[in-house]
Write the structure tokens for this entry.
Amino acid sequence: MFEAAIVLLYGLVAVTAMAVTLLEGWANHAGLTFHRLAGILACLLWPLTLLLFILHGSVVRLLTRLSRSPA
């Protein structure tokens, strides 16, 4: 159940960002350019980079805590 909620939230954020990107192109009367496609791809991938930063911080804190514990 929790995994489904996370996937749904990820999908909603990605779809919202893609919609904003597409609407921006429509408002500027710009077609589907390379930069627009790159922006749409970035909309799908940016939450993964956020997740990697969060996981990296958690692992660093854990390793720091383990290295300071008395043996």
